[in-house]
Amino acid sequence: MTIACYINDDIVFHQVQSVLSRASFDCERFLSETSLLRTLRRRSFALILVDTDIAPPAEERVFSWLNCRTGESTPVILLSPVHSAEQVALALDAGADDFIAKPFDPIELVARLHAVLRRCNHRSVHRSIELEGFSLDRESRIFLDRGIVIDLTPREFSMAWLLFSSPGIYLSRETISVAIWGVDSEIAGRTIEQHIYKLRKKLQLCVERRVMIRTAYTRGYRLELCGEEALTG
C-alpha cells in the first residue's frame, strides 16, 4: 500500500518514511504540488500526506485543489507545525480528512492513518453550495440557477466550484491552473481567461444577481458578492 507524500523537508520526510515503513506502508515522495497532481491523474494511492510547512502560494494551491476534487475519494491527511483551531477548520473544510500537528508521535501518526483509511472505505462524501440562488453539487457536478440546470463542462464546473467555495478571496492564476489542470500558469493562462469568460456568460453574473467574478491583473480572480450599495450606486 503506497502513500503519496508531498513533503519538502528532508528530515520530516525521512521521519515519516521510517515510521510508515515499519507499519508496512511504502512512501512515494513529491517535491512540488504540480508533480503530485500530475501523477494523481495517472495513478492512484491509498492516501495522500501533505506537509503544509511550505511557502504560502503553494499551500494556497493545495487547499484550492482539495476544494475542487470533484469525485475524488483518496483520503488526505495534512501535517502542520501550526495547530490552531482556525487552521484545523480551514483544512477540514477544504476537504482534508485529518490534520496532525508537528512534531507528531509515531504511534499517533500510524493510528490516525489507519483510522482515516477505515473511515474513508465506508464514507459517502456529499458536498453542496447554496449562494444567491445558485446551487452546486460537487459529486453530481450539477449547477443550478434558481432551480434550472446550467450546462457546464467538467472543468467549467471545477472552476465554478473553486470560486463559489471561496467567495471574496482572490485565487491566483497559478492556484487555479494547478488545482484544475495540474500545470503552471504559462501553459493554462489563456485557457483560464476563456473559462472565466464562459462562466460569466453562462451564469449571467452581474450586479443585479449580486454575484460577479472580479479580475485583478496581479492577484487573479475572485467571486464577489455585491451589496445594496452596488445596486443603488
Helix/strand layout:
Elements: E1 2-6, H1 10-22, E2 26-30, H2 33-40, E3 47-51, H3 56-67, E4 76-80, H4 85-94, E5 98-101, H5 106-122, E6 128-131, E7 134-137, E8 142-145, E9 148-150, H6 154-164, H7 173-180, H8 185-203, E10 211-216, E11 220-225, H9 228-232
Helix pairs in contact: 3-4, 3-7, 6-8, 7-8
Protein model, in words:
- The protein is of the alpha/beta class and 233 residues long.
- The chain has nine helices and eleven strands.
- It has helices at 10-22, 33-40, 56-67, 85-94, 106-122, 154-164, 173-180, 185-203, 228-232; strands at 2-6, 26-30, 47-51, 76-80, 98-101, 128-131, 134-137, 142-145, 148-150, 211-216, 220-225.
- The protein has a five-stranded parallel beta sheet with strand order 2-1-3-4-5, with helices on both faces. It has a four-stranded antiparallel beta sheet with strand order 6-7-8-9, covered by helices on one side.
- Helix 3 links the parallel strand 3 (47-51) and strand 4 (76-80).
- The termini are far apart.
